[in-house]
Amino acid sequence: MSIDTTPIAPPPKIGERISEDVSLSDRLIATPSHPNRTRVLIIEESSEMRDHFKQFLSTEFELIVVATPAEAVSVASLFPIQIVVQDIEHGREFDAVLLSKQLRQLNNCKEAYFVSITGFVLPEGKSILKRASYNYHLTKPFTLRRLREILRLCVAKQTLAILNGINIELDLPIGSTMMVEV
Q1: Cα-based angle 77, 30, 42 (whole degrees, multiple of 5)
Q2: Integer Cα distance of 90 and 151 in angstroms
């Protein structure tokens, strides 16, 4: 058995520029890195909404907030992402699906949960998003509190998936019980 010794890029530090590309680096500023926080990539064109996401969610999640699909792919190529939140503009559902497929093909996003945020979507747009395997959908208008609930649900499901994959043998006396709170 061989061990992969390829160095993994450390998570970005507070305020650290993620890219040397000047056009990207001014917008790609990371929130504080913490080993117990889930890394969330948010793709949002509106600078005002990007600021709202950072203010409301950065105390609980490690956020990387970008404005364009190209920036999303660049970041996801560098860092493992647990959750992707994608704002999908009306009439651009097909582009969003292509981006989600591209991100899912990256090793850093293979296990990620995908959350779409959409405004009014035509029936054909909804079916496109369903087939694209988004795990959750939020329809505008939505509250940031509701988004946080969905992100927490994603974290809980990821934790359960990890726990289900671990075979733990416990040496308990016969007849004893153990409670696990999830």
Answers
A1: 65
A2: 23
What phi and psi, each to the nearest 5 degrees, are found at residue 180?
-120, 125
- What domains lie within the chain, and their CATH numbers? 22-163 (3.40.50.2300)
pLDDT digits (tens, 9 = 90+) for 6-20: 444 444 444 444 444
Predicted structure pTM score? 0.71
- Cβ atoms of 161 and 139 within 8 Å: the answer is no
Do 87 and 117 contact (CB within 8 A), yes or no?
A: yes
Bridge partners, residue 39, by sequence? 62
How far apart are alpha carbons 77 and 101 in whole angstroms?
Answer: 14
The label of the residue with tokens 């364009």 reads 68
